[in-house]
Specification:
Pfam families: Polysacc_synt (PF01943). It comes from Flavisolibacter ginsenosidimutans. It is found in: Cell membrane. The protein is mainly α. The protein has one domain. It contains 25 helices and no strands. Helix 3 packs antiparallel against helix 13 and helix 14 packs across helix 19. It starts with 20 loop residues before the first helix and ends with a helix.
Length: about 525
């Protein structure tokens, strides 16, 4: 997401490191430090997927990995049970945290919401457990995996979800408290523990899908309990926390709007994966998931901005600082564009090369590359809409997104069944592209007309144009060089050299990147 325009004042108590000039200039309480910490965390999560997924596939097979993709689909579908509370509590925690006399109200709010979350997690986990047989028999389509193996894996999935679901509320609280750094470090550590632990279990105990999910349940449970410990520590008060209907009512209306958004967004963001898991073979579910995971690197890269920008949006709205709000909006939009366009165009133009360097599997490359390219373009469009979305949420407006997604669902959900049935997994990726392209063509101009009148041209001119054109032209040029001069001898060395050349030119073309590098490395 986009970068924060305001920074926090220097903390006088930050440890000074005079012998290390670069470190001594860093303020670990600043917005920049929080963004960097979150970016590091997301990078670790993304790299864990990139590095370890091919290992999982070699150890348990593509079809078994399709069950991992199926769990992603299942958990994504069940996340609608979030009821909008994680985002609502983030907003309310930010408001209460700005008022020192509301410490006990804050603790009661957190305690009340976590009770609801754990109850939902328990019920849903049991439902998945008892529906494992019908899911294995009537939903999942496998060629070689026996039904009992699939059934057992689905039962463990229920346990994993039950332990994972409450983590979202603790993440929401940490974001609202602006404790992004400990939250980011915990997330990064959890990703590494899950990845290394899974490989260790598969190598030392047994390379089966059941043992993969057993380890996921253990590691996810430990992570959730650790986040709970952190939130209790940061929200501690002198009085004992109690279940408070009063505090729940403060987030009721906003949470109801968020629930509406979640239910409708489900059809747009998760229905494709559910339909794919039903209509295509488990092997192709794995290909689809790999493409989606790589394209989702874009959101992983910019998502650290969410935890910094959204609380600041909420604070500026609450204090009616309209000019600062607009500046923050444009600066965050600009940074989203600066980051996502070069990464996105790299995935689009070099999809086959990246997949082959990663997996060394020509069959996988053939089936996955077109899906990856389509997903990536759709994800770039999706990322562009993040800042308008969080701007509206900070203002407490959820109706715009609800109406927008209802219209998109009515038009595009039927296409999902048609195109998936006709074109397979690639057809489902086309739906993702159409949904998000529609947001750019229709929703973005309407958002500016309703909420930021007169700012659309500034957004086009100042926020999007230069990153879009410069990264697109540079990476298209790199692709043409590879096509006409390096086709036979192209390897990862040449690929890295081309990207490095494009990256250096891009750095010089983008003023913000030049200033950032100058401040980071040259300023004394």
């Amino acid at each position: 997401m986009r970068k924060h325009s305001l920074t926090y004042p220097l903390n006088k108590h930050v440890l000074q490191l005079p012998k290390v000039p670069l470190l001594s200039r860093l303020n670990f309480q600043s917005s920049s430090a929080r963004v960097i910490a979150n970016l590091f965390s997301r990078a670790v999560v993304a790299l864990a997927g990139i590095v370890f997924v091919p290992i999982y596939i070699r150890l348990i097979g593509v079809e078994s990995y399709g069950l991992v993709a199926f769990y992603g689909t299942l958990s994504g579908a069940l996340i609608v049970l979030d009821l909008g509370l994680s985002t609502a509590i983030s907003r309310q925690v930010a408001i209460l945290n700005a008022q020192p006399d509301k410490k006990h109200d804050l603790r009661n709010l957190v305690f009340s919401v976590e009770i609801i979350y754990w109850a939902i997690a328990l019920v849903v986990g049991l439902v998945v457990f008892f529906l494992a047989n019908p899911i294995a028999v009537y939903w999942v389509k496998a060629k070689d995996l026996p039904v009992p193996v699939i059934e057992k894996a689905v039962r463990i999935m229920g346990l994993v979800f039950a332990l994972q679901f409450p983590a979202s509320i603790y993440n929401g609280v940490m974001i609202g408290l602006e404790k992004q750094i400990p939250n980011a470090l915990a997330t990064a550590l959890s990703a590494l523990v899950k990845a290394f632990g899974a490989v260790t279990v598969l190598l030392l105990i047994r390379p089966t899908i059941e043992w993969y999910f057993i380890w996921q349940a253990i590691s996810v449970g430990l992570f959730t309990l650790f986040l709970r410990y952190l939130t209790k520590r940061y929200t501690a008060s002198d009085q004992k926390a109690v279940f408070s209907k009063t505090q729940l009512q403060t987030v009721r209306n906003f949470a109801a709007g968020m629930m509406g958004i979640s239910l409708i967004t489900f059809f747009l963001g998760q229905a494709d994966k559910i339909v794919v898991s039903k209509l295509v073979l488990l092997e192709f579910v794995g290909y689809y998931n790999l493409a989606f995971m790589l394209a989702s690197m874009l959101t992983q890269i910019i998502s650290p901005l969410q935890s910094v920008v959204f609380p600041r949006f909420a604070t500026l709205v609450a204090t009616n600082q309209q000019e600062a709000l607009i500046r923050l909006y444009h600066k965050s939009c600009r940074w989203v564009a600066i980051v996502i366009f070069p990464v996105g165009f790299t995935l689009v133009f070099f999809a086959k090369e990246i997949l082959f360097f990663w997996t060394k599997n020509p069959t996988l490359v053939e089936h996955t590359a077109p899906i990856l390219q389509t997903f990536t373009v759709g994800t770039m469009c999706n990322c562009i809409m993040w800042m308008p979305y969080f701007f509206m949420l900070a203002k407490g407006n959820t109706r715009f997104t609800i109406y927008q997604n209802i219209i998109a669902s009515v038009i595009l959900v039927p296409l999902l069944f048609w195109w998936t049935g006709k074109y397979g997994a690639f057809g489902a990726s086309l739906v993702w592209l159409c949904v998000n392209a529609g947001y750019i063509v229709f929703s973005l101009p309407l958002f500016h007309r309703l909420f930021m009148k007169g700012e659309l041209f500034n957004w086009l001119k100042d926020d999007a144009a230069l990153p879009l054109l410069s990264s697109g032209i540079l990476l298209l040029g790199a692709k043409l060089l590879q096509t006409f001069f390096l086709t036979q001898s192209f390897n990862i060395f040449y690929f890295g050299a081309l990207l490095s050349l494009a990256g250096v030119l891009y750095l010089f073309l983008i003023p913000e990147l030049r200033k950032f590098c100058t401040a980071l490395f040259l300023k004394k």
